[in-house]
Amino acid sequence: MASRADAESTETGGRSSIDNDKIFAFRDRAGSLLSVTEQETIERIANWLRESSSTVVLTGAGISTESGIPDFRGPQGVWTKNPGAEQMATIQHYLANRDARVRSWQNRISNNTWADAQPNAGHIALAGLERRGKLDTLVTQNIDSLHLKAGSSRERVIEIHGTVRDFVCMGCGERGPIERVLDRVRAGEEDPPCRTCGGILKSATISFGQNLVREDMERAERAAARCEVFLAVGTSLTVYPVALLPEMALRNGARLVILNAQETPYDQIAHEVISEQIGAVLPRIVEAV
């Protein structure tokens, strides 16, 4: 199978467009130079999805950038532009620092990015793949819930890093809609405590230094281990333990397809890698299934 990690165009300046179809030239695992059109690549991936009895999709921040939500590790990512912000996002810092919590709640009510974001063509395409009966499990590293907004079934979506739509108490575990807490902040409570136990509240997201929900991770691992196609979309595949899922799929004979703007550690062993705009390519793949 061809890998797109060392992709080199036969034309000067990268990819070329011939008869409105791009020519991809890349080296296979033996080092031979191969050329295929973008349409041929799309049709091959669509055929794999069509024949697959179990497909797992893993999505990362890259699928939501077209909805106006910044990624974290891309060239213009939040952590790339401000490395210190990553350190401030640890669970230890949040729990130990009241000022950090006050800033966090104020940011939520002053920044409408999460509330206003709408699904884009990539999210909608994956919901369409499910409707075609060709998506077993959708694991997302995103906390924006845009897959659910796009129509993906809650029972098939694993929000492995949690969601901003809910709050959780770090003391008693009480959970509910985030708007209940945001209304209290708007009413003047800077750092609203849990009304059940007095504990610290935070959005129901997984912060750095915080354990993933074991049941969610185990479910994702089971799905990856039994799938026939693993599709990684908009993810750097560098955040562990989620980044181990493609390896589990490959180990059990699955085909690995990567759609991501930047290179990933798996590009050399993936069966196909596409670095075009997700919202443009993913709908074409799904439509061809």
Blueprint (SSEs and pairs):
Layout: E1 16-18, E2 21-27, E3 33-37, H1 38-51, E4 55-59, H2 78-81, H3 83-88, H4 91-96, H5 98-110, H6 113-116, H7 121-131, E5 137-140, H8 146-150, E6 157-159, E7 162-169, E8 175-177, H9 178-186, E9 201-205, H10 214-226, E10 229-233, H11 245-251, E11 255-259, E12 272-274, H12 278-288
Parallel strand pairs: 4-5, 4-10, 5-6, 10-11, 11-12
Antiparallel strand pairs: 1-2, 2-3, 7-8, 7-9
Helix pairs in contact: 1-12, 7-12, 10-11
**Uncertain runs:** 1-20, 23-35
| Mean of residue pLDDT values | 85
Task: Trace the largest sheet across and list its strands.
Answer: 6-5-4-10-11-12
What structural category characterises the helix and strand content? alpha/beta
User: How many extended strands?
Assistant: 12
- Report strand %: 15-25%
The ordered H/E elements are EEEHEHHHHHHEHEEEHEHEHEEH
**Shape category:** elongated
Q: State the major sheet.
A: 6 strands, parallel
- Helix fraction bin: 25-40%
Distance between the first and last residues' Cα? 20 Å
Number of helices: 12
Gyration radius, rounded = 20 Å
Describe what this molecule looks like in 3D:
By secondary structure, this protein is an alpha/beta fold. It has a domain at 82-116 and 170-205. The protein has helices at 38-51, 78-81, 83-88, 91-96, 98-110, 113-116, 121-131, 146-150, 178-186, 214-226, 245-251, 278-288, and strands spanning 16-18, 21-27, 33-37, 55-59, 137-140, 157-159, 162-169, 175-177, 201-205, 229-233, 255-259, 272-274. The strands form three sheets. A six-stranded parallel sheet has the order 6-5-4-10-11-12, with helices on both faces. Strands 1-2-3 form a three-stranded antiparallel sheet. A hairpin with a 5-residue loop joins strand 2 and strand 3. Helix 1 (38-51) crosses helix 12 and helix 10 (214-226) packs parallel to helix 11 (245-251). The longest helix is centred in the N-terminal third of the chain and has 14 residues, at 38-51. It is elongated, with a radius of gyration of 20 Å. The model is unreliable at 1-20 and 23-35 (pLDDT under 50).
